[in-house]
Design a protein that fits this description.
Helix content: 25-40%
Number of helices: 13
Structural class: alpha+beta
Shape: globular
Strand content: 15-25%
Oligomer: single chain
Radius of gyration: 20 Å
């Protein structure tokens, strides 16, 4: 395992060490108040680690502390990895971003779009535009999530077992075929909606590469980058953090072993949208590769122009998610943020009311994990905990405040 520790004086990297200490104080308060089980944060600049902090327990009931090698369910932080995998295949000339996905996934040859009615009597019309590869990468395909609970199409997803997971016994190919039979919530390319699009993208990776998603990830990304402890499940249960949810009313954490079963055994469906377990050290290597334009320690995963394209806002007219997206749950705020090929992209820090830099790209996971890459400041940040859902507290916004207020040079 790559050792995760501060390897430079924070002052040499432009940080005030005392101000960085506010991160510990702030998040320890969450633990002390029973609102988080435990947490770990890592801040890097110029390729050096300026801060590693943690407090609390990875398993409250067993009294096991958060440690540098704790394994976390990263849920939707899987999505950027799947997006990188797809863009690696794009770089090999195996598809164009504008290609209809039905070239490889024929189940999507004739999508239909919900227009009115209920989940029991939906009225649909043919899609006027095929679902294209870039629609999957940008969540503009018209797919959705059952857990949005926003309308009849979401109800159709839930009725078929697609709420926070997938039905037992169905692999990724079967799930892709099931999603293709459900109506889209809008015409492809016309809006933004957080969805199973990245799972479908993972299936596209399987078909185009000829390999199961776990094998492609391992051979193309994890092994070359030295991400030795990232996978769709782990046999090391002791290091896998327990999962918690807030108690209604008090917010105090309570253990949830149903969600905690994720990552403890090989899943039927290899979810490119949310299935991976990882460590802070492993995901740090992934963020450093992105910050360096696709290369780390002499290993090039992507070309720099590809990373730049991924980290650009692809919403038409450079609008933000508030203007183009549906007002539903997502892993980041909408104001001032656009969306690229697998990441949110900060377009307007003033509109977003944040200290972060324009051009920052980021995403998070349902259990309140998060990361961002700030090319302007040559900076990356990561936060790990296991509290579902991620909308419970503004942990990511707090971390941004605390990181950037400590950046003084």
């Amino acid at each position: 395992m790559t050792e995760l520790k501060v390897d430079s004086d924070p002052a040499d990297l432009g940080f005030d060490a005392d101000r960085l200490g506010r991160i510990d104080t702030h998040f320890a308060r969450y633990v002390d108040n029973g609102l988080l089980p435990g947490w770990l944060a890592v801040i890097s600049r110029q390729g050096k680690i300026a801060y590693v902090g943690s407090s609390g327990l990875r398993d409250v009931e067993a009294g096991l502390p958060v440690e540098p090698d704790t394994r976390w369910r990263i849920f939707s932080m899987t999505k950027p990895i799947t997006s990188v995998a797809a863009m690696m295949l794009y770089e090999q000339g195996l598809f164009q971003l504008t290609d209809p996905i039905s070239h490889w996934l024929p189940e999507f040859a004739e999508p239909r779009v919900f227009t009115k009615g209920s989940s029991l009597r939906p009225v649909t019309e043919p899609a006027t535009e095929p679902i294209r590869v870039w629609h999957l990468l940008t969540h503009t395909a018209g797919l959705t999530y059952g857990f949005h609970n926003a309308g009849p199409v979401d109800a159709l997803y839930r009725a078929q077992g697609y709420e926070w997971g997938t039905p037992p016994g169905l692999d990724l190919a079967a799930c892709s075929q099931a999603w293709a039979k459900l109506p889209l919530v809008f015409q492809p390319g016309s809006e933004w909606n957080y969805s199973v699009a990245t799972d479908v993208l993972g299936r596209l990776v399987e078909v185009v590469s000829g390999k199961p998603l776990d094998e492609f990830f391992s051979a193309a990304i994890f092994e070359p980058l030295g991400m030795t402890e990232t996978a769709f499940w782990t046999e090391d249960k002791d290091r896998l953090a327990a999962m918690y949810v807030p108690t209604p009313g008090t917010g105090k954490i309570v253990r949830n072993d149903a969600f905690g079963a994720v990552g403890a055994a090989r899943p039927d469906c290899l979810s490119g949208g949310g299935g991976l377990v990882s460590t802070a050290a492993d995901y740090h290597r992934f963020t450093q590769m992105l910050l360096r334009g696709g290369e780390l320690d002499g290993v090039r995963v992507l070309g720099p122009r590809t990373v730049e394209l991924m980290a650009s806002n692809h919403l038409p007219g450079h609008v933000d998610l508030e203007a183009y997206g549906r007002p539903l749950f997502a892993e980041m705020p909408f104001d001032g943020h656009g969306f690229g090929l697998g990441f949110s992209v900060l377009e307007d820090p003033i509109k977003a009311k944040t200290l972060a830099s324009a051009g920052e790209f980021a995403w998070g996971g349902a259990a309140s994990t998060a990361f961002w890459v700030d090319p302007d400041e040559d900076l990356t940040a990561m936060f790990f905990t296991q509290l579902l859902p991620s909308s419970t507290y503004p942990l990511r916004q707090h971390l941004r405040q605390l990181v950037y207020q400590a950046l003084v040079g």
